[in-house]
Amino acid sequence: MTELIINAVLLAVFLVILVRSAMFAIESVVKFSKITGIGELAAGFVIVAVSTSVPEISVAVFSTTSENVGLTLGDIFGSNVTNIGLITALFLLFSPVRKIETKTIRSFIPLLLAASLIPLFLLLAQQGSKFIGIALLAAFAFFIYRIFKSNIEQKQERQKGSPHKSLFYFLIGIAIVIVSAKIIVDSASAIAEMTGLRESVIGATIIALGTSLPELAVDVMAVRKKHLDLALGDIIGSCITNITLVLGIVLVLSTVEINFGILSTLVSFAIILPFVLFVFLRRGNIAKWQSVSLFAMYAIFLIVIYEIQAIIGGIKL
């Protein structure tokens, strides 16, 4: 009972810290984007997305060194489904901004299509290899180049101030976000186990959401402050980062053969959801039914993954 209370207190305290540090990180990166003139979409895609993907990158490195690549492959594709089906659905639902600017649409539409096409290619290729890993890392570098070039061409107005100071404050804020997210996941997992929840439920909800919790905290705070471009840049950037940078690292470092066909259901959802978001947002209008549809797809994803795992028998029911 004492352990349960301690974990409950830790959960509550670090939820508060998570929210406050996310607000601090957003204020810092917005200021950085205004000082440097790179724009909120680019800042979200490059700086915030890569930073909030640190949990996925950490899982990738540690799992490949222990030859447990199945863990990180599930995390990569599962995080992309969670990013769009849950996190994007949530911040679009509460967004005070209901119209996306045309220049923003032109920037993120190709990225959303890429987020669908890359998993499709991997599913068709079936087998992973070091060559594909190198190609994915090169693709990540190309996307970074394109997003910066696009924002330079748009000639963003600059605000006076020190970009280094703002970036430093952002990194402090995002580090606190990531540490808080880790403690929250650990505490929630402990509570779930002590209350007798099934392992399948824990894995499909708490752990799956765990590595996406930094995106959730940062993006919801960004949208509340009407920085929708920053939130979209982060969520799309996180999806691209996962399937290029993180997956590229896995394929290059892995010593075991990787078969994407085994994960066909998971990869299929990672193909479908970015494409659905592309269809929803291509005209720039945001409606509540879009969020409801994304939530429904995420719920279907959890049910399907749970049923497949139950049939296979790879988990305790």
Model regions low in confidence, pLDDT < 50 over at least 5 residues = 197-204, 313-317
Tell me the strand percentage band: under 5%
Total strands: the figure is 0
Give the overall average pLDDT. Answer: 77
Radius of gyration: 19 Å
Q: Give the biggest sheet.
A: none
End-to-end gap: 25 Å
CATH architecture label: Up-down Bundle
What's the SSE blueprint?
Layout: H1 2-36, H2 40-52, H3 54-65, H4 69-94, H5 102-125, H6 130-153, H7 163-194, H8 199-210, H9 213-224, H10 228-253, H11 264-281, H12 288-312
Helix pairs in contact: 1-2, 1-7, 1-9, 2-6, 2-10, 3-4, 3-10, 4-9, 4-10, 4-11, 4-12, 5-10, 5-11, 6-10, 7-8, 7-9, 8-12, 9-10, 11-12
Provide a quick synopsis of the model.
The protein is mostly helical and 317 residues long. The chain has helices at residues 2-36, 40-52, 54-65, 69-94, 102-125, 130-153, 163-194, 199-210, 213-224, 228-253, 264-281, 288-312. It has one domain (40-154, 197-312): A middle domain of Talin 1, CATH 1.20.1420.
Word description of this protein:
44% of the residues are buried. The chain has a single domain (40-154, 197-312), classed as A middle domain of Talin 1. The protein is mainly α. It starts with a helix and ends in a 5-residue tail after the last helix. α1 (2-36) runs antiparallel to α2 (40-52) and α7 packs antiparallel against α8. The model is unreliable at 197-204 and 313-317 (pLDDT under 50). The protein has twelve helices and no strands.
Notable features of this structure?
single chain, 317 residues, mainly alpha, 12 helices
